[in-house]
């Protein structure tokens, strides 16, 4: 598979055969552009937002494939890689927005960009828009296209960056809606997460591998860490890390009463490398050291 490193917005424009109105920002309709080179791995050095229309071929991100349907949005951040795998009858459709990190430096968007966790979602966690939501996004694309077509002045950067930020804020709202409408799927993920937690701490995993990370459980459930974390937070009000810690504390409370085991043994069984770390976490969550809790009860 060919590799293409795209550090600049103009490089992507050249691939697509579209003009460059601004060296750091680009927006265009894919139906008026060339298809991306097939069987190619693209390394991005800038942000990309795609609004797909119709069946737009297949993109691979991480380990998953996704056939993008009408009204699907995909987000790519600098440092990420997309694999392009198109069918023979593939035609470019939909809208594309590109912006380089250098463009938003010094703006409110630059300070907030890391809050948009969906830039790190896997492709099968894409955003699916309703018809009304599509109209809102298309209207914002049109506003950006209009602004880029005007002569650049001292207001251009703020207007463009503010419009991009507004677009991203709408996407946060639409993702919240998507989490709600997929409640049954999310409940199944929550149930599987609880089972994975139980399996981990009731096996040798904790002793052999230490404390598990959020990424470990996300991987087991075939989700990206950010999507998994956002899903858990929206469904329960607690972060995935808080769930792991709550499980640890509940198990620790149970095992503290086994007086045949020292606190250090219990700490190692739960995956702590150093007993003092276990002691600190236990006291922070209960108000007592493990020994005090054992004696109290």
UniProtKB/TrEMBL annotation:
Residues 195-296 form the HTH araC/xylS-type domain. GO terms for molecular function: DNA-binding transcription factor activity; sequence-specific DNA binding. SMART domains: HTH_ARAC. Pfam families: HTH_18 (PF12833). Gene3D superfamilies: Homeodomain-like. InterPro entries: Homeodomain-like_sf, HTH-like, HTH_AraC, Tscrpt_reg_AraC-type_HTH. Coiled coil: none annotated. Keywords: DNA-binding, Transcription, Transcription regulation. This is Transcriptional regulator, AraC family. It comes from Flavobacterium johnsoniae (strain ATCC 17061 / DSM 2064 / JCM 8514 / BCRC 14874 / CCUG 350202 / NBRC 14942 / NCIMB 11054 / UW101) (Cytophaga johnsonae). The lineage of its organism: Bacteria, Pseudomonadati, Bacteroidota, Flavobacteriia, Flavobacteriales.
């Amino acid at each position: 598979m060919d590799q293409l490193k795209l550090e600049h917005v103009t490089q992507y424009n050249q691939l697509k055969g579209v003009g460059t109105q601004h060296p750091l920002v680009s927006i265009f309709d894919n139906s008026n552009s060339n298809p991306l080179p097939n069987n190619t791995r693209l390394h991005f050095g800038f942000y990309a937002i795609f609004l797909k229309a119709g069946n737009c071929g297949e993109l691979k991100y991480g380990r998953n494939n996704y056939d993008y349907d009408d009204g699907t949005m995909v987000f790519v951040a600098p440092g990420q890689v997309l694999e392009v795998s198109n069918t023979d009858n593939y035609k470019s459709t939909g809208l594309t927005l590109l912006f380089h990190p250098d463009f938003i430096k010094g703006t409110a968007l630059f300070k907030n960009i890391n809050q948009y966790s969906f830039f790190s979602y896997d492709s099968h966690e894409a955003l699916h828009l309703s018809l009304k939501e599509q109209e809102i996004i298309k209207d914002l694309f049109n506003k950006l296209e209009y602004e880029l077509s005007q002569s650049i002045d001292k207001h251009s950067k703020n207007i463009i960056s503010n419009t991009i930020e507004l677009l991203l804020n709408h996407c946060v709202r639409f993702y919240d809606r998507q989490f709600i409408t997929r409640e049954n799927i999310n409940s199944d993920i929550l149930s599987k997460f609880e089972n994975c937690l139980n399996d981990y701490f009731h096996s040798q995993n904790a002793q052999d591998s230490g404390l598990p990370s959020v990424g470990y459980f996300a991987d087991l459930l075939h989700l990206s860490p950010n999507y998994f974390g956002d899903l858990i937070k929206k469904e329960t009000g607690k972060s995935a890390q808080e769930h792991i810690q709550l499980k640890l504390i509940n198990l620790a409370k149970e095992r503290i009463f086994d007086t045949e085991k020292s606190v250090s043994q219990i700490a190692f069984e739960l995956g702590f490398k150093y007993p003092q770390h276990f002691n600190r976490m236990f006291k922070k969550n209960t108000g007592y050291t493990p020994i005090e809790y054992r004696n109290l009860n």
